[in-house]
Input
Amino acid sequence: MPATTYRPRHWLDSYAHFVRSNASQVTQVESALRSLEYIIPGRFHETPITAEALHTTLTLLTSFHTYLLSPSIHDPNHHASPQTRYERWAGGKSRFYRRAGAVLRTVQYTQLLIEMFAKRAGEKVRWRVVVLLEVVKALCRFLMLRLTGSRAVIGSEMGAEGQERKIEEGVTENLEVMEGLNGNAAPNGTIDGEWKMPRTGMNLPPLPSPDLGQSITTFLEKRVVTAEDIKSAQRLVHKLRSVQGQAAEVMWILRPVIYALALQRVQGNKRDWRPWLVGIGLEVASRHLSKKDIKDSVIGGLTGMSSVEREELKRRGWSMAWWGMRGAFYDSVTGPWVKGVAGRLKGKLLLDMVGTVTEDYDWLWEEYYFSTATV
Output
C-alpha cells in the first residue's frame, strides 16, 4: 500500500473528492440529520453536552461541506453572490482576514458547547470563559475591521451558507448550457432543443417551456446583469469615514463583551435589570448611529445601500429581537409566557411533542448565556 495512503492530507483530499462527487446526497443527509436533531424531545435535559456536541459537529461539518461545494472558491471566474465576492476580495487582500474569519466562525459554532463544559467547573469559571470567548470574537472583528479599511464587519450565518451553497449548485446546473455556447454540441441542426448558429458554430440554449413548469421569468432573471454585478467588490461595503459610523461599529463589536462583563459582575443574577439595560442600550445606540452614518455617507441613504449592506443591517435588526430571550426580561416577561404555552400544549394529541420541545428550549435559554447569542 502506498505511503501516501497514511497521510492525513491524502485522507482529506479523498474525502473532499467524495463530497463533491455526491453533493446532492450529502446535502440531503445533512438536512435530515439537522431536522431530526431539532425535534428529538428531551435532548437538553438528560444529556445536554452529548446533544450539543452532536449539534456542534454537524454545524462544523456543514460549514466544511459548504466550502468544498462552493465553485466560487475554486473558480475565480465563477459568477458568485455579492457577499461571496466581497468576502473573496477581503480574504484575498490579507491572509490574516481569512484566519480571523475562520477563528470567529469556529468560536461561534463551538461557544455553547465550551460554556457547557465550563459550567461543570463552577459559575466563576463559566463566566470567565464566557468573557474570554467574547473578547476573542471582538478581537477578530476589530482585526477584520482594520484589514478592510474601516468597513463594517459582514457576518455570515449557517442559513446564509446554506443559501450560498444552494445558489452555487443552481449555477453549476447551467454548465451544459455554457458548454453548448462554447461549441461542444452536435455539429448539425438542433439537439436537446439547442440551435446551432451556422456562421459562428455556437449553440443557443433552449428556451424554457411553460408546459413543463419552467418559468420564463426565472430563466431571464438568471441572465440579467445588475449594477452590483459590475461594481467592484470593495465598493459593495462603504468605508466608515465619519466619527459616528466608526463609533457605531465599535459599540456593536464591544456590546457582547460589555454585556458579558456586566453579567459576570452580578454573577448571572437573572433578576438584575442593569446588564440587560446596558446591553440593549448599546445595541440601540449603535443601530441609530449606523443608520445616521449611512444617510450621510451613502448616496441615496438607506435606499442606496448595496445588497450586502442591506442584508447585514437586516440581520443586525433581527438579532435585536433576541433581547426578549435574555436576562431579566426573559426571567420576568418572556419566560413565564413560554412556560405557559409549553404547559398548555403538554398532554394534547399531536401538540405534546411541540410542548416538550418548547420546554426543552426554555430550559436551554434560561441556563446558558450563548444559547441566545447572535454575534
Residues 158-163, 166-191 have pLDDT under 50 and may be disordered. The beta strands are 190-191, 194-196, 203-204.
